[in-house]
Amino acid sequence: KALAGWGLSELEDSAVLIVSELVSNAGLHAKVTPEQIIETRYFRSSGALRIEVHDGSPDRPWPRPADPEATDGRGLLLVDALADEWGVADRGGPGKVVWASLSVRGAAECDAPDGGRGRG
To answer: Among candidates 119, 99, 105, which has minimal Cα distance to 45?
Structure first.
């Protein structure tokens, strides 16, 4: 709903897939406890939609070569293919943030109706 409110409906399919892959990756590999949760954040600027997934693990994910016989391990390859940019950064406290950016083409900047943050 936030994407439609921001005039970014055309990014919805890519954004949903990116969020799904990043949250799934965090759920599989992060140290998730009641104190160390997975958190998603979304930011809209005049040039891009930024998607962030925060988790408590210091381990940084990197795409691995695609194995045609494997049934997993393609999530970051999908993120890499869909996002204009993506990366990993330290955060204030334990863990990291994995982020992806999708270019906004021709949409006016507006504020997030809920502050631009969500929890996953």
So the answer is: 105
